[in-house]
Amino acid sequence: MDNKKIEKISRALSDANRIAILQQFKKKKDCLYCAEVNDLLDLTQPSVSHHLKQLVDAELLLPQKEGRNLKYVLNQQVLDEYIACLTELKD
Amino acid sequence: MDNKKIEKISRALSDANRIAILQQFKKKKDCLYCAEVNDLLDLTQPSVSHHLKQLVDAELLLPQKEGRNLKYVLNQQVLDEYIACLTELKD
DNA sequence: CTTATACATCGAAATATTTGAATATTTAAA
DNA sequence: TTTAAATATTCAAATATTTCGATGTATAAG
Q: Do B35 and B17 meet the contact criterion of CB atoms below 8 Å apart?
């Protein structure tokens, strides 16, 4: 993972709303629907869409269309790689 | 570690210059001097000072004065706690 | 085919971040 | 005690991010 990617993922994680989205996966084990995120956050739909886009662009979330709905799953591999880079900082 | 802290650390990590500073510890194993960071980055002294402040405010770096000089050490404990929070996201 | 639902995009305002010139502060050296 | 060196602070400009209203697009339902 290069520094540009580390920077992008870090930026995606640097917002309270986006952290809340990711933590919601702990409660809804496998996946989260876009509509559920709209209910979770105290923001308008375009703002939620913006935050989800940051997480998808960082590849922390993988989107899957289901008709009119959008389902997200956590990208554990990218998260693992990011954690590995941080672990390397510790020598 | 609460979400505010996760947010602050993530933001501190979301900049190419600050990532470069942290990675420099891999080469200079124990500590880094402020002057070394000024040499490392292609920025003016006030800008470097700003970036170091972000890292210190996030407690990723611990500053130690040495006369006129300033020495930084990596705060491995905070880094470990941050990594632990990210690991928890994976269920 | 028309309408409703789910989500995305655009545009603009508000806010935050990054940067550097100028200057201040602290401490060591002369 | 004057001067020089290392770092911090202030201020303003440039840029980026966040937010939301308005609107667009895709798909399902009637």
A: no
